[in-house]
């Protein structure tokens, strides 16, 4: 494995004083990880350096054609003082899946994981300790060829930055209102929906904006061909409880395979619950709601962990779930996942990595 060089900052920054007001992605730590790719040399010069601006040519390809991929995970400070990561190997594996789709050269997953751990250790004083807070880790890769021509990049930068983030639910888990999107689509089979790449988010902003203006927190995405099958909710995977069984859309090429999603399924199954990955149409959901068989719905993702859904608006139809209150399964799943992540519950699955 390549050796990771280290240059410590001479100007440590002021850490945010108020841990109860960190928000999300507002503060960054003292250091970042960088590595370059140049054709002929491969990935080289892995290094940890002071956090700061990166200079680019205005012609840098990522600015024009969005050849970019990213990941998101968290480091948690447990009550015993230890620092924990949650299934970080999965993030690195997924980064390479995204790389493959965007014609970005594969990274050495072990090296990337080593770099991530080293960086978190160096900036560990930045990990907040207040209830529900964490250090958000953002690995990303972008093309920097100074070339306004469309082709796979020959020069790229891999960067990891860290951001102390606040509790997602400072006032406790509150079910959100969701707008079922019938006009815009997030992804189609054959596109880039299964990759974590910037373009997917750029193209989702308009729908999100319109839903927000109408009083909704997120949109529920339907499939891009028939506008019939459910895909994801905002930037989260989505689960429904119908007749006491749990269903989630099957991974079929346009859905991002979340690590929270796969972990949630394993926990739910360990409780003896049935979890089905299959196509779910919005019509089926509306019918189940009418018949009182749709008891809960929730999104899953690293940022919120579990996001309970209280209301779904589909055209003229309004589906209210569990009287707009958080359901039992959603709450229990949230408690289990966060318990494992923050180390207050035993990790029977071997998912946490202590630093
Ligand atoms: C990141 C992401 C998710 C959730 O993935 P996790 O690994 O659980 O954080 C789901 N959908 C989209 C579109 C995403 O970008």
Structure description:
The protein has eight helices and 18 strands. 23% of the residues lie in helices and 30% in strands. The protein is globular. It has two domains: 5-165, Aminotransferase class 4, branched-chain amino acid transferase, N-terminal domain (D-amino Acid Aminotransferase, Chain A, domain 1, 2-Layer Sandwich); 176-342, D-amino Acid Aminotransferase, Chain A, domain 2 (Alpha-Beta Barrel). The chain has 355 residues and is α+β, with helices and mostly antiparallel strands. The longest helix has 14 residues, at 88-101. The protein binds pyridoxal-5'-phosphate.
Taking pLDDT < 50 over at least 5 consecutive residues as the criterion, the unreliable ranges are none
Helix content: 10-25%
Any idea what the CATH architecture of the largest domain is? Alpha-Beta Barrel
In DSSP terms (H or I, runs of 4 or more residues), the helix count works out at 8
* CA-based shape: globular
H-E order = EEEHEEEHHEEEHHEEEEHEHEEEHE
Ligand list = pyridoxal-5'-phosphate
The biggest beta sheet is recorded as: 9 strands, mixed
| CATH superfamily membership of the largest domain | D-amino Acid Aminotransferase, subunit A, domain 2
CATH class of the largest domain: Alpha Beta
Rg is 21 Å
Look at the helices and sheets and give the structural class.
alpha+beta
CATH topology of the largest domain: D-amino Acid Aminotransferase, Chain A, domain 2
Distance, first to last CA: 19 Å
